[in-house]
Amino acid sequence: MGRISDNFRRIKDSIPDDVQLVAATKSRSADEIKEVIDAGADVIGENYTHPEAVRKHRELGEYADRVRWELIGHLQKNDINKALPIFDRVQTVESLSKAEHIDKRVERAGKEITPVLIEINSGREEAKYGLAPDKDALEEIVEGMRKLEHLRLDGLMTMGPFTGDPEDARPYFEVARELYEYGKTLVDGKDRMEVLSMGMTNSYRVAIEEGANMIRVGTAIFGERD
Ligand SMILES: *Cc1c(COP(=O)(O)O)cnc(C)c1O
User: Fold this and answer.
1) What distance in angstroms lies between residue 70's CA and the mean position of ligand 1's atoms?
2) Is 199 in the pocket of ligand 1 (CB under 6 A)?
3) pLDDT at residue 2, rounded to an integer
4) For 132-173, what is the HEC assignment?
């Protein structure tokens, strides 16, 4: 077993069974991704649809089919047609208009439904995408998405401001958790509020304490990015 496998197993063993560990693989090679899949990773999170994720998905061939792929980076409108065939879920829907653009293109990608998460800009940061952390805003997008037959809402995702100190992230995770609980009262029919994706290498422990049931970890598995 190599370093990547050891890191993956160690993190996996240290978190509760009901927390999904997503291997965040931006800038990692196909060989590194194979190693983490061999170690038991079942969800791969990629940031850049084109060309990075498209190329790696193809390079990985049958390996790619052994796992689920989730888009954890921003989805450009121009990339929707390329993203839908490879990603099993899009975690970064930030507006109703983006949701509508995706919905329109799902069938063309040969699918019936694309599951999505709403990205919450929990720190109200100018430089980040995401829905404002606001109950009315959530209500509006959830109601709008209910009409979109080819999307299924699964839950929420957030990044939160990065300071280096994981404790600084806690209030933002709390904000996302509150919206998540509120979201449970809004969903109906095909839609759900079951996934709360938050926490990265330096903050995943705090995120789990604050209710995350999905964490996205790159550096702690693969080492520092170049
Ligand atoms: C890069 C990235 C991660 C993983 O970050 P690490 O600090 O390397 O664990 C998680 N989520 C998103 C959205 C990312 O872009």
Assistant:
1) 13
2) no
3) 87
4) CCCHHHHHHHHHHHHCCCCEEEEEEEECCCCCCCHHHHHHHH
What's the Rg (C-alpha) of the chain?
A: 17
Q: Is 5's C-beta closer than 6 angstroms to any atom of ligand 1?
A: no
Domain holding 29, by residue range, is: 3-221
Sign of CA dihedral 129, 130, 131, 134: negative
The H-or-E segment that residue 83 falls in is helix 80-86
Alpha carbon of 24 to ligand 1 centroid (Å) = 6
The number of the ligand 1 atom at minimal distance from the alpha carbon of 219 is 8
How high is the mean pLDDT of the chain? Answer: 97
| Gap from CA of 23 to ligand 1 centroid (Å) | 9
pLDDT at 224: 95
Domain presence at residue 226:
no
- Residue 208, pLDDT score: 98
Name the region of 80 (left: φ>0; alpha: ψ -120 to 50; beta: rest). Answer: alpha
Residue 203 lies in a domain: yes
- Note the pLDDT of residue 145: 98
- Domain harbouring 87, CATH code: 3.20.20.10
Q: Is 95 in the pocket of ligand 1 (CB under 6 A)?
A: no
Residues of the chain with pLDDT under 70: 1
| Interval between CA 178 and ligand 1 midpoint (Å) | 22
Domain count across the chain: 1
